[in-house]
Amino acid sequence: MKTILILSYSPLDRDPRVRRQILALKNDYKIVAAGQTPPNISGVDFVSINTKHDYRRLLLRIGSAVIGKSVRKLAASGHLEKAYWGPKHESIYQTVKRDHYDGIIANDVNMLPISIRIAKEKKIKVYFDAHEYPTRQNKKRNQDYKPLIYEWALKKYIQQPAIFTTVCEGLAKEYGAEFGRQPDIILNAPLLESLSPSKIDSGKIHLVHHGIAAPKRKIETLIELMPKLDSRFHLNLYLVDYNKSYLSHLKKLSKGSKKVTFHDPVKTELISKEINKHDIGIYMLNDDSFNMKYALPNKFFEFIQARLAIVIWPSPEMSKIIEAHKLGWVTKDRDIQAMASLLNNLNQQEISDAKSNSHDASKEFSSESSFSQIQNIARMITNDS
């Protein structure tokens, strides 16, 4: 059985896209998953690359400090390759290079140079899954050295992986325009769930939103929306405690409201089953970064698997799917009042029809097609005929 290294500097128990790679391949390949936390998937070997307490990284950082060459200073002065190969990435490389692999899956650009370096040494191929668009994750780009390093890495290495993917058409086109190579697309679609649309309670419509509690998500807009909605509507939030002070702030904002309920978050694989009991998945996404503008996130497809109607602020990638399959509604403006007006004018039958359409679309927007794509890619990078 051939061995594939799946490399991602993320918590593998909470990274849906990487977990789907593992699930798609674990029956046909020996999988070595390297990340910050174990994937907790049976039969998969785990290598920790959480370098926060790694002695090798500590020694490298001490050495860098002594000669006055921190990663930030190197990047700011234009020494981007040296900045990348600082303590963290050198430590990860030293950790994962030791074993035998027949192919590598590099997740996100921060793992691409490491993967290419190992692949050249071992004479194997790399599949690069860029996920989103790392050079434009932060509007205040000049205040953050990381996008500069990511841009260097993409310019230097983008042509070298055997195959390259991203999450949606808008990002794929931009990669082609900026870096001269247009990736294939693998959607963030989750496993197909054996569910049916839940019945709508008479006189009560349950909105639901799930995800991490982070200030950039601006979840307070959902709480600010609720007083503008009629008495039928109730908001259910399933928020991962990513930022304790922000989550506390959200709870204070909704204190005393009978229209907002905070639920305990559930494991990734249980999300669609849990939120199936609600009616409308709501996502008021800001477009204050390039990645947000073209977002096509896991939660959108989890709404579909949960057989929910969907309402969103304008978003080109999500809007195309909603409108083509009549899954719900898109406001004309990115405005709280626009969302309130839309929701207040919906009736029970319209919501029920949209939930039924999500049910009809659930197979198309499941991981069945992405599993096949990933399996074909694995055969190609491992020369497995």
Quick one: CATH class of the largest domain?
Answer: Alpha Beta
Number of helices: 17
Which strand order does the major sheet show? 3-2-1-4-5-6-7
Summed over residues and divided by their number, the pLDDT gives a mean of: 92
Percentage of residues in DSSP E strands = 15-25%
Task: Give the beta-strand count.
Answer: 13
Written account of the structure:
- There is one protein chain.
- With 385 residues, the protein is an alpha/beta fold.
- It folds into two domains: 3-188 and 367-381, Rossmann fold; 205-361, Rossmann fold (3-Layer(aba) Sandwich), CATH 3.40.50.2000.
- 41% of the residues lie in helices and 16% in strands.
- The strands form two sheets. The protein has a seven-stranded parallel beta sheet, sandwiched between helices.
- Helix 1 crosses helix 17, helix 2 (55-66) packs antiparallel against helix 5 (87-96) and helix 5 (87-96) runs parallel beside helix 6.
- It starts with a strand and ends with a helix.
- The model has no long low-confidence stretch (mean pLDDT 92).
